[in-house]
């Protein structure tokens, strides 16, 4: 799945257009001893390489048992995560592929095997898992694929943000502590803030940031459909700011921006995107649709600054 620069840029642009039309592509694969299909958004995949192509340096005391080690990739030194161990699917000794991904402007390798296929789905086909699975904190959404024999299989979309939070929690904690320096005293937003976010990690971080800023008047929504339904019956002058993720089940953040900005009653409300899909193409697409700002996850200082700029004293 390695790509040259020209073809990679074409793919990135094509997938930006795909995301803007409420669709996505998923890379499906197995891990460890499991026959279950797991997946991540193709947009976050840089390439898939053979494990044997790299020497995995087993660094002592990484602080997490799921970090297999480090590899010296052409884009730099990056950690390799043993997904099987994290998911409880065996030790992953035979996982012979490394999926090189970019999340929140950080590169990471994910061990996998039996790379199955890339599937294209509409966000309306992506669903929130049942509470019992959601509470585990490793699966963010599910979907289904049709097999060659006509049967269906569930695809479990991994919550990589939760994984990265578990293996490197100190980063977000240090960033979060700096938010306090942006405002010497709590501030009062005069209008309500609406947040559309399906990631448990991101929701928790945003709540903490709002708390540090002394903001209590806000509402959280699990996906784009929920926030659009709420806005359709809301007083437009009561809403000071909308913060939205891009990757959400049922209705994506791109569609949220598009529909709100196409509605004369609500188009004046500023929208800030908070997404791990932090590539420039996504930012450009969101801004062209009418977003007022774009913040890569998880960036507490930038989030606090955006709230101050767009929501305070509006």
Q: What is the CATH top level name of the largest domain?
A: Mainly Beta
The count of helical stretches stands at 10
Roughly what percent helix? 25-40%
Percent in strands: 25-35%
SSE pattern, N- to C-terminal = HEEEEEHEEHEEHHEHEHEHEHEH
Please explain how this structure is put together.
There is one protein chain. The chain has 314 residues and is α/β, with parallel strands linked by helices. The chain is 30% helix and 30% strand. Strands 1, 2, 3, 4, 5, 6, 7, 8 and 9 form a nine-stranded mixed β-sheet that branches. It has a five-stranded parallel β-sheet with strand order 11-10-12-13-14, with helices on both faces.
List its traits.
314 residues, alpha/beta, OB fold (Dihydrolipoamide Acetyltransferase, E2P), Rossmann fold, 2 domains, nine-stranded mixed β-sheet, five-stranded parallel β-sheet, 10 helices, 30% helix, globular, disordered N terminus
Question: Which SSEs are present, and which pair or pack?
Answer:
Layout: H1 5-20, E1 23-30, E2 37-41, E3 45-50, E4 67-73, E5 76-81, H2 83-87, E6 97-103, E7 106-122, H3 131-134, E8 139-146, E9 152-158, H4 160-167, H5 169-177, E10 192-196, H6 200-212, E11 218-221, H7 224-232, E12 239-244, H8 253-261, E13 271-275, H9 280-289, E14 293-296, H10 300-310
Helix pairs in contact: 1-9, 4-5, 7-8
Quick gist of this model?
The protein has 2 domains: 5-167, OB fold (Dihydrolipoamide Acetyltransferase, E2P) (Beta Barrel), CATH 2.40.50.180; 170-310, Response regulator (Rossmann fold, 3-Layer(aba) Sandwich). Helix content is 30%, strand content 30%.
